[in-house]
Amino acid sequence: MYHLILCFITSFLVTYIAIPSIITVARVKKLTDEPEERRAHRKSVPTLGGIAIFSGVIFSIILWTPFQVFGNLQYILCAMVILFLIGAKDDIIPLDPYKKMTGQVFAACILVFKANIRITSLYGLLGINDIPGWLSILLSIFTILVIINAMNLIDGVNALCASVGIIICVTLGFWFKAVDQTVFAIIAAALVGALVAFMKFNLSPAKIFMGDTGSMLVGVICSILAISFIELNKTGVDPQYRISAPPAIAVSVLFIPLFDTIRVFTLRLIRGVSPFIADRQHMHHLLLDLGLTHLQVTSILIMLNTIIIIIAFNLQFLGNITLVWIILCIGILFTLSLGFLKKRSWRANRLSQ
């Protein structure tokens, strides 16, 4: 346990110490995010917070991971470095989306082929259990890419992406510690430490954003933890810690980024536009349009995610399919409520004019 505590503290301190210098350099070199119509901020803010998060996470993992359990961690670190380089380039000089996706696919392939971060069973979802090797590879790469980009998409209000990352890492990190999976527990602890330090500078009024560098790092670590969580429940852990519906639990832990991404893409397709064209239909945009502050928006979404995690853990005996439907229905009801409140607010403002 002391490894995890030291890992958290080290990552926190490295990130906390690095951020003020990064803010200074970013302002001097004008490496800032400028306000525009879709942005939720109204002034220029440095976007290189991900560099500090990456530094804290990598330094802490390398320093405190016991050598005898290092295992495939080298490949995980390689994937992190690739995403760091892509994100840093994109934060400084916007990168072509196809080049960005190519880099993400390369990192995902390293995780799947070298680190063996792979989904090999659907646990009865769609009536399928074990899946063939080629499908396992494709599904694993797709899942990693979805989670990476889902984290990037929710990074629209202060502290939201960091808070979601903390919830995911704390929830899964404690489970990994309980089943004696030291490497994954250390990775989770390192990211939590870095994100807690980052939030000190990201809470409104934000002094720095994590940018693509940070959101992609959070995304890839969360994808690694989620897939490993699903797989370890299949390959065998102590019965007292075994989860009966691991895919559904993983979905509940990743609820905010996954549901919001699926919802927004579906709405865009229904309207007949490309799912990759940005708009203001994300859940955090709907809450902002109700007049809530960044902190209030983040608090509401984190509370929702926490409630869904608690429900999922307590109802896991229902099985994956039923539990996923329950989670989906909660999400739909929540967003329908937001839409209703937004319309009522619009009508009230119109009548008062």
End-to-end CA span? 60 Å
Percentage of helical residues? over 70%
Please give the largest β-sheet. Answer: 2 strands, antiparallel
Shape: globular
What's the count of strands?
Answer: 2
Give me the strand/helix succession.
HEEHHHHHHHHHHHH
Number of helical runs?
13
Structural class: mainly alpha
- Could you tell me the radius of gyration in angstroms? 20 Å
Spans of 5+ residues with little confidence (pLDDT < 50)? Answer: none
Amount of beta strand: under 5%
Residue-averaged pLDDT, rounded?
90
Strand order of the biggest β-sheet: 1-2
What does this protein structure show overall?
- This protein has 353 residues and is mostly helical.
- The chain is 71% helix and 1% strand.
- The protein has 13 helices and 2 strands.
- The protein has helices at residues 2-28, 49-64, 73-92, 97-114, 133-153, 160-178, 182-202, 211-235, 246-253, 255-270, 283-289, 294-314, 320-352, and strands spanning 32-33, 45-46.
- Helix 9 runs antiparallel to helix 12.
- The longest helix has 33 residues, at 320-352.
- The N and C termini lie far apart (60 Å).
